[in-house]
Amino acid sequence: MPCLPTDAQSHHWLGWAGVCGGLAVLIGAFGAHGLPDHLSAMGLDPALIQRRLDQFDVGARYHLAHAVALLALSALPTSRRHARTVRWAYRLMWAGVLLFSGSLYLLVLTNTPWLGAITPLGGLAWIAAWTLLAIAGFFPVRNGDQHHRKTQTIAPEPDSAESRSGAPR
C-alpha cells in the first residue's frame, strides 16, 4: 500500500516544488530581460557577456526541469520500503538546484569564475538523486513488504455490444 508521501508531507513537498518552479521562472525571466543590461553595466566585453548569458541559461533550464521533478516526487506514491530512498532523492534534487543552478547564477551575477568549481557538485547531487529513483524503480516491493492490491482487467461483458463488434466504446 503506498505510504509516501503522507498528506502533510505531500503538501509540504508540493509547496516547495511550487517555490522552486516559481523561482525558476522568475530567475529565467530576469536572465532573458534584465541580465544583459546588468552584464553590460559591469563593463564586460561582448564575448564574455554571451558566455555568461549562456551559463545563466543552463542554470535556469536545469532549475526549471528539476522543479518539475520535485513536483512529480511530491505526488509519487511509494512503498514503505522505498520511502527513505525517495526522501533522499527529494533532498538531493534540492541540493542540486542550490549547488548547480545557484552557483551558476552567482558566477554570472558577480563575474566570479571560481564559483564554477561548485557547479559539478550540484550535478553530482542530481545524478545521485536520479540514481536513487532508478533503484526504487528497478527493485520493486517484495511480497512481504506491501499488501497486494488487486488488479482488475477491464474486459467487456459477454453480452455487451463491444464484445459482439470488437470495437471499443
UniProtKB/TrEMBL annotation:
Family: Belongs to the UPF0382 family.
Cell location: Membrane
Organism domain of life: Bacteria
Keyword vocabulary terms for this entry: Membrane, Transmembrane, Transmembrane helix
Listed InterPro entries: DUF423
Name by which UniProt lists this protein: DUF423 domain-containing protein
Membrane topology, record value: Multi-pass membrane protein
Annotated stretches, region: Disordered: 149-169
Protein species of origin: Crateriforma conspicua
Keyword Transmembrane among UniProt keywords: yes
TM segment ranges: 12-32, 60-76, 88-108, 114-141
Listed GO CC annotations: plasma membrane
